[in-house]
Amino acid sequence: MENELKLQIIGHIYNDYGGKFGVPRQSGLVEEVISRVVLLPEFRRAEAFRGLTGFSHVWLLWLFSEGFASGEAGEREWQPTVRPPRLGGNQRVGVFASRSPNRPNPIGLSAVRLLEIAQEEDGPVLLVAGADVLNGTPLLDIKPYVPYADARPQAQGGFAVPPEQARRLQVQIAPELLAQLPPDKRPALLAVLAEDPRPAYHAGRQEVRTYGLSFAGFNVRFQVQGEVLRVVALEQT
Amino acid sequence: MENELKLQIIGHIYNDYGGKFGVPRQSGLVEEVISRVVLLPEFRRAEAFRGLTGFSHVWLLWLFSEGFASGEAGEREWQPTVRPPRLGGNQRVGVFASRSPNRPNPIGLSAVRLLEIAQEEDGPVLLVAGADVLNGTPLLDIKPYVPYADARPQAQGGFAVPPEQARRLQVQIAPELLAQLPPDKRPALLAVLAEDPRPAYHAGRQEVRTYGLSFAGFNVRFQVQGEVLRVVALEQT
Fold first, then answer.
1. What is the mean pLDDT of residues A31-56?
2. Binary contact (A5, B10; C-beta < 8 A)
3. pLDDT above 90 covers what percent of chain B?
4. Is A90 strand, coil or helix?
5. Pick from A55, A81, A144: which is nearest to B50 by CB?
6. How much is the mean pLDDT over chain B?
7. Is the pLDDT of residue B71 over 70?
8. In whole angstroms, how far apart are CA A55 and each of A210, B27, B61, B155, B207?
9. What percent of chain B has pLDDT over 70?
10. How confident is the model at residue B73 (pLDDT cuts 50, 70, 90)?
């Protein structure tokens, strides 16, 4: 194909999001979840990060990997319109008016807070907060967040509802269930659940259904009634 | 290569920046320059933009095309460290701490203001303000700017100096020279020149040199003394 180009995966993003269900809908919503950004050996060089500690945030450019990784350009499915979960799943908007994965080039873009550049044995690892990607997501690029060019706080956000206007659930979990989780994973799980991981079109349903979410190596089973989310079981996977 | 992936060019960005010299260093610096974002026929469909007019800004993901377009992944040159022009060209920082083109995947990222989605005969064209790309730049993606996730006005910008702290030049141009330019190009050229297109390491030089900048089909020749930039000739190219 004439307009095809080859890029390369330069690393991966690792975190506790074991499944698509539960991953926040945008970056920055759940800063309690920390991701490790690990480059492949070719790119994992301390000098490539020189000067980055002066920046509080970075951009991650990554690949929507679920259902896309093996497709060739041009064979991959894209759809001119998509149904964003936040619009209840029944309203169609253009793919270029959405952050949906079903785009011609399935590249994701996330602003994350840079916590630390850890110098590990095999080279530097970035610890970042607030990524909205699945564990193991392939990485294409890391860029510094340049506030004077990237931050447009007065921008109009269309149908994307800011979090202060978004519903948050009250999360109930029995102490003996919570105790099964390592202490450092607890605030993160509670924050993920408070975001209401259900598809928006489930939120109005009457019947009580049990959902399962994969987080930090556990299958977290929960039910929602009104504004209350109750964890009913935690199963190690 | 195992970690190679194929993406596709979905369109191009057209504007008055005829050469790399003169393109602003970040997006949003020169909003006087308007770019046309034109998709290839396969992607140029009105419904793919449905809902986008509610957003005031969009992200453009594009390809650094100068010196990169023909390279294969893995054969392309990337450098672990680069010399950002704003640091005077003599200080090295890591490529992941910069927005330099010499990155493993030469993808550029620009927040631009969405002025209009023009419905032209062959389909929609996006008119955007503030792009920091060369005329003809290949496009990979358009995403809505979601302020609650993308705008982090409190972020620390490392060595990237915000424009209010940046030097601006006073631009002098004789009326008979300015008259050669179409009226709608004049404010844009003046704004581009005021940004001081010279490499930072030239700014302190004593000798008066004549520079040439390609803009809107003209070769704009100018000299700088102190804080004053004087246009000495305009030649149609």
1. 96
2. no
3. 73
4. coil
5. A81
6. 90
7. no
8. 42, 18, 21, 7, 36
9. 94
10. very low
Are B93 and B81 contacting, i.e. CB atoms less than 8 angstroms apart? yes
Three-state SS letters, A129-167: ECCCCCCCEEEEEEEECCHHHHCCCCCCECCCCCHHHCC
What is the Cα–Cα distance from A107 to A99, expressed in whole angstroms?
Answer: 9
Structure tokens at A221: 């089973």
8 A C-beta contact, residue B94 and residue B81: yes
- Whole-number pLDDT of residue A208: 87
Q: Which two tokens stand for residue A194?
A: 């408070």
**CB neighbour burial string for A182-194, b if at least 16 within 10 angstroms, e if fewer:** eeebbebbbbbbb
Which pLDDT band, with edges at 50, 70 and 90, does B40 fall under? very high
Tokens standing for residue A197: 């991981």
Tell me which residues of chain A, numbers 14 to 53, contact chain B at a CB-CB cutoff of 8 Å: 26-29, 40, 43, 45, 47-52
Three-state SS across B167-198?
Answer: CCCEEECCHHHHCCCCHHHHHHHHHHHHCCCC
Q: How is residue A19 written in tokens?
A: 């499944």
Alpha-carbon distance B112 to B29, whole Å?
Answer: 10
As a whole number of angstroms, the distance between CA B11 and CA B136 comes to: 9
| Residue of B79, B110, B150, B195 for testing the chain A interface, max A β-carbons within 10 Å | B150
Residues in chain B: 237
Residue with tokens 């590249």: A107
Task: Using alpha carbons only, give the angle B3, B100, B96 rounded to the nearest 5 degrees.
Answer: 60
Q: Is some CB atom of chain A closer than 8 A to the CB atom of B129?
A: no
